[in-house]
Each structure stands twice: as structure tokens, then as C-alpha cells.
Amino acid sequence: MASELCKTISVARLEKHKNLFLNYRNLHHFPLELLKDEGLQYLERLYMKRNSLTTLVQYYITLKKYLHSNNIVVVPEAIGSLVKLQCLDLSDNALEIVCPEIGRLRALRHLRLANNQLQFLPPEVGDLKELQTLDISTNRLLTLPERLHLCLSLQYLTVDRNRLWCVPRHLCQLPSLNELSMAGNRLAFLPLDLGRSRELQYVYVDNNIHLKGLPSYLYNKVIGCSGCGAPIQVSEVKLLSFSSGQLTVFLPAEVKAIGTEHDHVLPLQELAMRSLYHTYHNFLKDLNFLSPISLPRSLLELLHCPLGHCHRCSEPMFTIVYPKLFPLRETPMAGLHQGRTTVSFVAYCCSTQCLQTFDLLS
């Protein structure tokens, strides 16, 4: 096996191969022959799937690395040295930790970490400004880092089959996101602004059994919601809920109050936050004028990223929402989602006026 491996590498060096396939070779260690001489300077893609690698080495070369289906447990700090790396596939390993140094891979465009044992992602993932594809499906993630919204080039995000119970509302700010797949998690609600971006066209949330409400922004998108809205006692989920007739939806944990068509006066905190927000946007353009002393950090963060925007007039909302349900079974989309009788579109409005005038089909 060793002589055959050396021969394969030697041929690739002599013939200046751009692709090198070392799949299914039962390798336990990274072949150091790859690091010798300058003969492999033309190599662009290295495929090493279905081996028995347990670690990575520091490998200074511009490569696309396909290392899935090994037994790698940790992505080491040395990975940060591969500053020109564009594609990294570590799917089907035994990864438990991704080190913060992964944020140094500023040229990385595709990151695949599916089928591992990750419980969290480092916030530094948000430093990957060129990242277009992120697949972290089939792991043990409970949540996603808020800084993920800083991945300005991210187009495809797949987090199927994890343990997510919420999605940071900051992800609604991703300017390039086209497809979001979160099937098979534990989601009971979605961010109010999900679907507000015109770029986002495909959203899949199948098999989140507690999920009963879809933001009305998703109405004209391609959505998957099979297996959602299963019957459940509200008391089983400790979240704020809103009911209309026999339908009940859960609301994001950040929602502090629910308004109705009879609540014409907004809470004082909501009025203050909206006033401060408009002062910032219309005049100052910079929230740095607010020191942490003058405003608690939690409220300052809320000003940067509101709870959501009114589905009728786009007014920012911070603590209170006026929800309105549109059962999916009563919309023209019912034929596409047969059997999804307990799932509803939810319009989140900012006032009684918007609540009364909002029409999903208009």
C-alpha cells in the first residue's frame, strides 16, 4: 500500500496533476510525501474521503480539501494558516470542536461539516466574508452564533437534523442568503423578519413538530413544512403563544407583549425604542453616540437589530407585536401542502391600524 501511495503521488508530481484522489486507502496519517519538494504546486484539489485520519497537519498550499468520512475529532489551530483555502469538506468525521482560528480562512467559500458531533460553532465563523456555502447538518447544535449574519456572501445554509430550538433573528440580515434549510430540529418559532429579504427564496423547516407559525414574509417563497404543527398541549412548551379560534402559534422568546385590535396605546418602552431608532436612522446614523452607561447593553443591541419589522408598513418593533393568523389550509397554497392543517402564516404588525388593514393576498 505504501509503495502504491508513493507511486500515485510521484505520478501526480511529474504530470503536474491539479486533482489528487487518495480515497479509500485506509490512511491513518497524513502522507508527508505531499509536503516534499515543489512538484505539487499545481495541485488544487485533494480528495481523502473514507480513510482513518484522526487529525490534520499544517499544510501550506492553496488547496480545496475533501477530508470527509474519516475519524477527525478536532479542527486544529494550524488550520488558520491556510489563508488561501477555498473549500473545506470535513463531513462524516467525529468532530467535536472547531477552533476559533477557522475565522482566519478569509478566502474560504465552501465549508461542509455535516455528520459530526459539534455542539456549537465558534463566533469567528462570522469572519468568513467570502463564505457562500455552509453545511452543518446532522450535528448536535442547540443554536447558531449571532455573528453568522456577518457572512455577507453566504447563499446556502443547511442546518438540518440538529437540536436547534431557536434561530437568531440576526440571520434575517444576511444579504445574499438564497436557501435556508432547518428541517428536523426542535424549532417552535421563527424570526419575525425571516423571508423579508428578497434574496431568500427557499426555506425548508420540515419536521419541526412544535412549529405552527410561518412569518407571512414566507408566503411567496418556496417553503417546506411537512411534519410541522403536530398537536401538542401549550403547557408542554414554555413560550408565549397566541391563539385564534382553534389555532395556536408560539412566538419568539424576545416578544414581551401581544397587542390586539383593542390596544391602541403602545407600551412606554416600545414608544421610547421606536423614537430612539428613528432619531438614529434619520439624523445620527451612528449608535455609538449611545454609551453603555446611558442605555443597557441589551437595549442597545436591540436597537441595532430590532425584534422585527411590521409586515404591513415595515415599522421596527422591539417588545410588542400585533399578530394575525392566516391558516395555510385557507390560502391558495393549500393544495401544495396537503395535510398541513395546523400550520398558519403569521403577520406581525406594529399597531392596530396595520393589524386591521393587513391582507396576506394583496
From TrEMBL:
Residues 100-183 form the Disease resistance R13L4/SHOC-2-like LRR domain. The keyword Ribosomal protein does not apply. GO terms for cellular component: cytoplasm. This is Leucine rich repeat containing 28. PROSITE patterns: LRR. The keyword Ubl conjugation does not apply. Gene3D superfamilies: Ribonuclease Inhibitor. It holds the Pfam family LRR_14. It comes from Propithecus coquereli (Coquerel's sifaka). Keywords: Leucine-rich repeat, Repeat.
